Model the fold of this input.
Amino acid sequence: MGNNFKIPAQAVKPVGTNPVVTAIFTADPSAHVWEDGRIYIYASHDMDPARGCDLMDRYHVYSSDDMVNWLDEGEILRSEDVSWGRPEGGFMWAPDCAYKNGTYYFYYPHPSESDWNNSWKIGVATSKQPGTGFVDQGYIPGLGAFAMIDPCVFVDDDNRAYMYYGGGGRCAGGELNEDMMSIKGDMHDMNTLEDFHEATWVFKRNGVYYLTYSDNVHDNNQMRYATSDNPLGPWTYRGVFLETTGCSTSHGSVAEFKGKWYLFYHNQAISDQGNLRSMCIDELHFNEDGSICTVTQTVQGLSPAGAITESAEYPLYQVSEVGAGGTISVDDAGNKAATNLAQPGAYCSFPGIDGAGGGRTALYIYYETRETLAKLRLFVNGDDLSLINLTGTKDGSEYWGCAHITVRLNPGSDNTIKLTGGQGEVRVSGITAVPFND
Ligand code: FUB
Done:
């Protein structure tokens, strides 16, 4: 993230709500606090419209310094970038990220062949920055021939790193070599976990190692956990700590930030579809004996951790053109808004968007809708970036909303954002664009 990044004043959230990211569907959140003091979430991306979990692709990273305002750091890797990946793409499932000696290692499960279920590998991409610049480095060699999904990497206080993965009832763990891209010795079965399904996550608190995972409750996976005094077990089963979220899958991570512990998980609150999921965050509490209290799943979300993220005023780009049934309305103060965008093909466009030196730019799209969930398709300089969610915006008697996504723009002002009709009636009142300058 650029050092001087400030979010637009009208986009600042004073309190959190769940789900925390609404513009696109995100799942399987892996959260880490890195050297810059910010907290980052590496999530998978349920592409819309979904086809099972086949089309998951284009990982985005999110960061925050207040737990309430989340900056989309942008897309970091897509299946097309994976030289060894399955030719048809998709299947970019639950990832994780680790940091060691100045490098960020992004781990992701992806099949290498069309026969996806028999060719899972764990890929690694690296960068010197936590939210951008990742380059694929190949996959971890020599891992066992079972469900190689849901990698998790835990770096202990002594800087030794451990990798865990698994699904379909089997979980394996082992130590990583210094290169963070190969396994030291053998992987070991983590075989004292009760009803293990998938979604391994390991963290340490007060000298105790915790391994969390999802269970096999049919169509309603819960999260359970076990503890150990060793990062590779043996593990003592401790119970369920996240009951069903209403989604068939469950997948989460645990992190401490500014003195509080949090659970990052997903549900299907926005879509009501198990393959269009959304990340949520709630506080995690421990009993005196170190056991985890059952998490209360909230819609209200969190109070800010520390001061609210800094904001600044940025120019509002107003709609300049509409077509195929879209209309422009003008209020008494001369503010323009695009309306009648419900029809597929109807569009509004915003030319002349300043991308500064080019590269990552945070877009904030301001809108109103009385729909529970409206959608518009986003085009950036003609590239189809798929559907953007515009969730219902009733706040008291006012209707307002802000959808945030980070995209890549060309240098200078020759950039055009176009939104076409997708689902539901929506009124778009403008866009702000904040270049990262990195
Ligand atoms: O997101 C795809 C798969 O669904 C993950 O790998 C599992 O943990 C489950 O969340």
Remarks:
- The radius of gyration is 22 Å.
- The chain has a mean pLDDT of 95.
- Residues 27-28, 44, 53, 93-94, 149-150, 198-199, 249, 251 surround beta-L-arabinofuranose (CB under 6 Å).
